Structure formats: C-alpha cells, structure tokens
Amino acid sequence: MQEQAMTQESRFTGSHQDSVLCLACSVDGVLASGGESGELCLWSVEKPGLLHQVSGLQDADVTAVCFSVKQPHVLCAAVGESVLLYDSRDMSKAVHQFEFNSEEINEVNFNVKENFLAPCDDSGEVKIIDFEGRKLFKTLRGHENICSSAKFCPKKTWGMVSGGLDQNVILWDFSRGKKLKICNMQDFVSEDGPVSAYMCNPPLVHSVDVSGQTFACGLGNSVIQMFKLEGKKSFQHTGSLQGHSQGVSQVHFPKFEVDDTLVSAGNDGKIILWDLADSQKSHAAGSSSKHGKKVVKDEDAAGTAGTVKSHISQNIDHGSKINWLASGCVKGKRLLFVADVSPVVTAYSLGGDDEKASSESH
C-alpha cells in the first residue's frame, strides 16, 4: 500500500436533520446518504453539493444504501423492512419496492454480477433477491440474533459471508441456502484479557467485508478478526487486529486499493488504515501466538511491550462515533466517506491519482 496522508477533503452538510446512518458512492461520483426519519440525499462529490433530497420515507430510518456498478443510476435504499429501488436521475418516486424482509434491514448489497441483491435484517435472516426477476430466490436462516452485515464473496459464485449479534460468522452456499461453516467469535477472545471487559463488550459482529479471498469482521470488543476463504466450503482464521479502544462499527476494503488495505472505524471515533501485507509480515516475524490464535496489537492503543505497529498505515481521530464508511474515486482522487452520529458527512482524501481507481468505487 502506498504511504499517503489522509486529510479532510470536504463536508456534506445542510440537508440531513438527524444522524446519517449509511453511505454509498457510485462509480460516476454521486454520493448517497441515508439517515434517521426517512432522509435520503444524493450529493455531487466532484463539486460538493446537494443533488436530490427525499424526506419522510415510510416514517422509518434509511439504514442502508447501495449503487449498481454496471448501471450507476440504479440505487437501492433500505427503509425499515423494505428495499426501495430508485433511478437516481429521477428521485421523485421509487421505481420498485421489495417487500421480503420481516424486520428492519441493516445492510443491502449486490453480488458481482448484480443479478442478486441481499438485504439482511433484525430477524437474523438474509434474503437473497433475484434482482432481474424481482422475486425472492432464497432465505438464509442461521443467526439466532440480529444479522448486522452480509456480503457476497466476489470470487465464489454462490458464496456469502454474514455476521450477527449472536457472535457468529457464517459462510453460505446461497444457491442452496446451506451453511458451509459457522465460527463463533468467542473462540478468539484472549484468555489473558479481563473477564469484566469481555462481559461488558462481547464480540458481537457489527460489520463484515470481503476482498478476494480475505474477509474481515469488526467486533463489539474492539477487535478485528481476519479470515481467509479456503476451497469451496471453508475458511481459516489468519489473525486479529487491535487498534480500537471501543467497538468496531465498520470494516471496509476500499476498491481503489489492492486487497491488502483495510479501513476500520469505531465507537471510539478512530479511523484506522491497516496495511495487511505488513501485518502478515509481522505475524511471520514474531507476533504473539497462543493455541494457534494470532494476535497483532497497535503499540499506542494497547500499550503493551513487544508488539508491532508497522501494519497500521494511519490512525486518525475523527472525533465522533462512526456509523458507516464508503469509498470512491472521483477524477483520480481516492476518497473515504464517513458518516457519524451528526447530520454531516465527511470526505477524507487518501491522495494520489490512480488510472485504475478512476473506474472503480464502492
């Protein structure tokens, strides 16, 4: 990963009245922000300004948004138990409404081919929607509590990873609605850690993201657990990243970077850029290991001797609890968008032009 300074680029303000809950950036430089009280806004990123605003959607919060990559004007917004489909060129009304979820939706994502859409919800279910046919394809039932996050595996045609407040991460074959592997995050809680800290902050899974064969899980106990997909039906634990002092609310692989870059954000208001290539080198060179469980700590955050910090590229204090991260590249500029508990969205620049990045965003 390139060494680069993350600096505040711009702020999107003046439209949301309450907290911004979710973000997505289209490949043509439009930022969508969803918030409390049914607020949905579209912004120009190149010249920051409001393009469209929709308010009072179904008297519910807008909890998740995502754009199509193949058709950048296609926008999906999760509002309460529904997914509203919009044409961003005309936001006067939704062009379709998916009504398959039974409780509030927490995240919604397309697969790579964009023939499937997956909203996960508070019931613990993930609905797999046949996007072209506008019908329900499968219901994935495996979490015993809220399913907070679900992502398709880009290199597995029928693969999906989900995480929930039952502390479980599940690898699915969503073509059959079959659980391939379940892993409980309690298995990676340090035996040396204080019991009180674990009881107050159990390893609930708040966010998962997948890049290539790697996926990351942001946990309520402030730790990020890293995994690698193996074969068709399994994955293995590859390490733990510790840099946050409170729960990790978001883990995000920016699509304009190589697969070894991860961004995390937490309830402590910190944003951390991780160089996973350095992290892996650190593991090999001498990170601590107990019962085969690898742990990597940030020296400044953990305050322990003998730890490594070369895997952290940057650590900045955003100042407020963070709800969502999104990234995009506009006119060659790499941008990270941050939504927190305020009505304002902040854009940070990661610097540098990148020809490849100009055609990708997430």
Descriptors:
6-stranded mixed sheet; 4-stranded antiparallel sheet; disordered C terminus; 362 residues; mainly beta
Describe this entry's structure for a reader.
The protein is mainly β and 362 residues long. Helices cover 6% and strands 51% of the residues. The chain has three helices and 30 strands. The protein has helices at residues 195-200, 276-286, 299-302, and strands spanning 7-12, 20-25, 30-35, 39-44, 49-54, 62-67, 74-79, 82-87, 96-98, 105-110, 116-121, 125-130, 135-141, 147-152, 159-164, 168-173, 178-184, 205-211, 214-219, 223-230, 234-242, 248-252, 261-266, 270-275, 288-290, 293-297, 312-317, 322-330, 333-340, 345-349. The strands form seven sheets. Strands 18-19-20-21-26-25 form a six-stranded mixed sheet. Strand 4 and strand 5 (49-54) form a beta hairpin.
Low-confidence stretches: 192-198, 282-310, 354-362
Largest beta sheet: strand ordering: 18-19-20-21-26-25
Oligomer: single chain
Mean pLDDT: 87
In whole angstroms, how far apart are the ends? 18 Å
Structure classification? mainly beta
With helices defined by DSSP (H or I, 4 residues minimum), what is the helix count? 3
Strand content: over 45%
Shape: globular
**Share of residues in helices:** under 10%
Quantity of strands, as a count: 30
Q: Radius of gyration in whole Å, from Cα?
A: 19 Å
For the biggest sheet, the summary is:
6 strands, mixed
Note the topology.
Elements: E1 7-12, E2 20-25, E3 30-35, E4 39-44, E5 49-54, E6 62-67, E7 74-79, E8 82-87, E9 96-98, E10 105-110, E11 116-121, E12 125-130, E13 135-141, E14 147-152, E15 159-164, E16 168-173, E17 178-184, H1 195-200, E18 205-211, E19 214-219, E20 223-230, E21 234-242, E22 248-252, E23 261-266, E24 270-275, H2 276-286, E25 288-290, E26 293-297, H3 299-302, E27 312-317, E28 322-330, E29 333-340, E30 345-349
Parallel strand pairs: 21-26
Antiparallel strand pairs: 1-30, 2-3, 3-4, 4-5, 6-7, 7-8, 8-9, 10-11, 11-12, 12-13, 14-15, 15-16, 16-17, 18-19, 19-20, 20-21, 22-23, 23-24, 24-27, 25-26, 28-29, 29-30
